[in-house]
Write a structure and sequence with these properties.
By secondary structure, the chain is α+β, with helices and mostly antiparallel strands. Helix content is 44%, strand content 15%. The chain is built from eleven helices and six strands. It has a six-stranded mixed beta sheet with strand order 2-1-6-5-4-3. Helix 1 runs antiparallel to helix 2, helix 1 packs across helix 3 and helix 6 packs across helix 7. The longest helix has 22 residues. The radius of gyration is 21 Å and the shape is globular.
């Protein structure tokens, strides 16, 4: 509920909030990769509208997209967002579907997948903005030009550069049945130290990336290659809590079935899998252990 300075509810802003909150969050979360930061950006957007004369805003959707995009670019470019001092690999925060989170069904589901968010991290803030506005929200280059404050030809060049920087092929829409079968087999093989099963499930160039922040048992660099990944996954000393202490559940994470590990109701880890283009093996495994990136999740 948004209020004006006098303390009265601004009905117009409340209506805009109901109508456009999902769009604003969709842009902010994909841009920032942090749930709380995205929610803060949404609140800031509509709080900024209170008391403003919006009568001359002819296209509210474009107005909100422009405000939110530029706000996120500024956040990503600010000194507090620099990650030079971050311990280990930085991964986006996972988004668990719940009644408290906006429904993302209106947007392309593949652009919400965890693998897609990881891919976006390869882009500069401006590249990410142009890429998302064009690929996900399907804006024309003239519209993108107005949003990011660059010419349409320049936006086309930025889009081309973004595609070069992004890993190809881009994460695609996965067959749910194929995914569920592979993920289920992966968890079983992981739980039982089944080397042969893991070798059969993982692609040759599999990467395992862990984001644990200061977590003492988190790999600080990506583990690259099937044999190295399997060696770590089947190590008697690694992941003991995930195997023996925490309860695992198959949960919709970023619109796809992934694994959430809990201890007495507290989320301790989220494990997301990315499939190969052929959807016959697992190409990447992402494990988020940093408690700061999990404390927004309630199951």
């Amino acid at each position: 509920m948004l209020h004006s300075e006098s303390g009265h509810v601004d009905n117009t802003i409340d209506e805009l909030y109901r109508d456009y909150r999902k769009l604003a969050f969709s842009i902010a979360y994909r841009m920032l990769g942090v749930v709380y930061d995205a929610e803060d950006a949404v609140q800031d957007l509509f709080a900024d509208m209170v008391g403003r004369d919006l009568s001359e805003v002819r296209h509210m959707k474009a107005y909100i997209a422009k405000w939110m995009t530029n706000r996120c670019i500024n956040v990503l470019q600010s000194p507090r967002r620099t990650r030079e001092n971050y311990i280990g690999e930085w991964l986006p925060e996972p988004l668990i579907e719940s009644a408290d989170q906006p429904d993302q069904a209106a947007e392309r589901a593949d652009s919400l997948s965890y693998a897609y968010l990881v891919m976006l991290e390869r882009l500069t803030p401006t590249e990410r903005a142009v890429f998302l506005l064009r690929e996900v929200f399907e804006y024309e280059y003239e519209e993108i030009s107005d949003i990011v404050g660059k010419s349409a030809p320049n936006c086309r060049k930025i889009m081309s550069r973004a595609k070069e920087h992004a890993r190809k092929p881009y994460p695609s829409v996965e067959d749910a049945d194929a995914r569920n079968a592979l993920v289920t087999k992966f968890v079983s093989a992981f739980q039982h130290y089944d080397v042969e099963a893991l070798l059969a499930l993982l692609s040759e160039d599999t990467e395992l990336i862990m984001d644990g922040g200061s977590h003492p048992r988190s790999a600080k660099r990506p583990i690259v290659g099937r044999s190295r990944v399997v060696t770590l996954l089947t190590s008697p000393k690694a992941f003991r809590a995930m195997r023996f202490s925490w309860q695992v559940s198959f949960t919709s994470v970023n619109g796809e079935m992934n694994m959430v590990y809990c201890d007495q109701g507290v989320v301790k880890a989220v494990c997301c899998c990315e499939l190969t283009a052929e959807q016959d093996r697992i190409s990447n495994v992402y494990i988020i252990l940093n408690p700061d990136k999990l404390d927004h999740i309630s199951l």
